[in-house]
Amino acid sequence: MSHSLHGKLVVAVASSALFDLTDSDRVFREGGEDAYRAYQREREDQVLPAGVAFPFIRRLLSLNGQDPSDRPVEVVLLSRNDPDTGARVFRSIASHGLEIERAVFTKGKAPWPYVESFGASLFLSANPMDVREAIGHGIPAGQVLERGAVRDDPSDAGLRVAFDFDGVLADDSSERIYKSQGMDAFRANEEARRTEPLDAGPLLRLFRDLGAVQTVERERKRQDPSYEPRLRIAIATARGAPAHQRVVASLRAWGLNVDEAFFLGGVAKHSVLGTFRPHLFFDDQLAHVEPTSALLPSVHVPFGVANQG
Predict the structure, then answer these.
(1) Active site residue: 164, 171, 209, 284, which one?
(2) How sure is the predictor about 266, in pLDDT bands with cuts at 50, 70 and 90?
(3) Which pLDDT belongs to residue 58?
(4) N- or C-end of the chain: fewer Cβ atoms within 10 A?
(5) How is residue 45 annotated by DSSP?
């Protein structure tokens, strides 16, 4: 039976982002493929622990309604395993109650080329090489940083997502001016172009698709006033006034809105993100996501001038 994914928010997630595979990876590195295969078969019925992206994926899927016509989200598993060694992953998915039915197993090859096959607006992986290759081919991707504890409060039904702006939602053209000419030139450029929207960055499509899910939630609220929308989206940018004007101009041109916006003017992002408590925070600079990763699930988007050299 054919099921179209057109019009849905599709996220492609690697098993390395969804589950904690620390022990499995150690066995593979130390013993090779045969030892790894034996290890997974022996533990096929042992449920894998949650990984960094697990709370995000679980909550994202929970936004689907029971009616087949009210299911705006789809998650696809992309794995470097083969179907044999990947059996434990699928059993763990079922044990955790995640409604993921589509998967690609590539037996050691990079899985990111299949992102476009499913029309996904995001590929999440803990493998930095896979993510960099995907970004290099124009595919929206992010590397989850495997640091700190996975915090997943079952009493909290909300889903909160935070994005950096330059190099994530927008391109890095302004960042390039800052890097090459300094802060004064950056501010002068942004002031002169304050009403000009920036071009799209690598995750703008994801941002749009999340906005479409919010539209679905608003319609549910209209039909059932007791329904409480759960998805909230924020921007956390190092920009301060007056450079914030270009962010506003870009959002207007894109026809998009955010629930919260933090124009920090250089203040450390973890200071506000610790209050917003996103289930994923996307930033193009490791200098920003490494500090936040100890507090909350953080994703590095290796795009643009901040990741060159």
Answers:
(1) 164
(2) confident
(3) 96
(4) N
(5) T
CA pair distance 31, 294, nearest whole angstrom: 30
User: What secondary structure does DSSP assign to 248-261, as a single string?
Assistant: HHHHHHHT---SEE
pTM metric for this prediction:
0.94
Answer with the residue of higher pLDDT: 149 or 170.
170
What is the three-class DSSP state of 105?
strand
Is 164 tagged catalytic? Answer: yes
Give one DSSP letter per residue of the chain, joined into a string: -----TTSEEEEEEHHHHB--HHHHHHHHHHHHHHHHHHHHHTTTSPPPB-TTHHHHHHHHHTS-SSTTS--EEEEEEESS-TTTTHHHHHHHHHTT----EEEE-TTS--GGGTGGGT-SEEEES-HHHHHHHHHTT--EEEEP--SPPP--TT---EEEEE-SBTTTB-SHHHHHHHHH-HHHHHHHHHHTTTSPPPB-TTHHHHHHHHHHHHHHHHHHHH-TT----EEEEEEES--TTTHHHHHHHHHHHT---SEEEE-TT--THHHHHHH--SEEEES-HHHHHHHTTTS-EEE---SGGG--
Highest mean pLDDT among 8-12, 87-91, 149-153: 8-12
3-state secondary structure of 9: strand
Q: What is the pLDDT of residue 284?
A: 96
The tokens describing 64, both together, are: 């689907």
Q: Tens digit of pLDDT for each residue in 155-196?
A: 888 999 999 999 999 999 999 999 899 988 999 999 999 999
> Rounded to a whole number, what is the largest CA-CA distance in the chain?
63
User: Mean pLDDT across the chain, nearest whole number?
Assistant: 92
**Domains with residue ranges and CATH for the chain:** 9-144 (3.40.50.1000), 159-307 (3.40.50.1000)
Q: List C-alpha distances in Å: 47 to 43, 44, 121, 232.
A: 8, 8, 28, 30
